[in-house]
Amino acid sequence: MKTLPLTALMLTLLSGCSLFQVNTNLDKKNFTEYFKPSSVAVMDKTQVLDVDAKPIGTVEGESCQTDDTQPIPNITDAQTSARKKVADMGGNAVVFSKCAPVPASSECIASLVCYGQAYQVKDSE
Predict the structure, then answer these.
(1) Domains in the chain and their CATH numbers?
(2) pTM of the predicted protein model
């Protein structure tokens, strides 16, 4: 007989949770945007010559420090920004030619930009 009140209590507690609504930013678009740079391979000049690659344009990516509380600009962030742009162009590979600091602006107290060539590499099957 003691299990019946305990079961009723558990059901009451669980049904009370159904009144709460949880809102998150977890949706397919956020995941797609977050993982987009990972679909772009970083290659060097010799690697791109060994595959069936079509150049589709130039890209640049920036790492920007907007205030003193942020980390200093770095190559990884600048290249990730450029890889996202390559994916937006429909490419899947990039060859970086140069990364260089750029002068401070009204938006960035320090900045680093990486330049590269975007490619569409055909799958080798």
Answers:
(1) 3-121 (3.30.110.70)
(2) 0.73
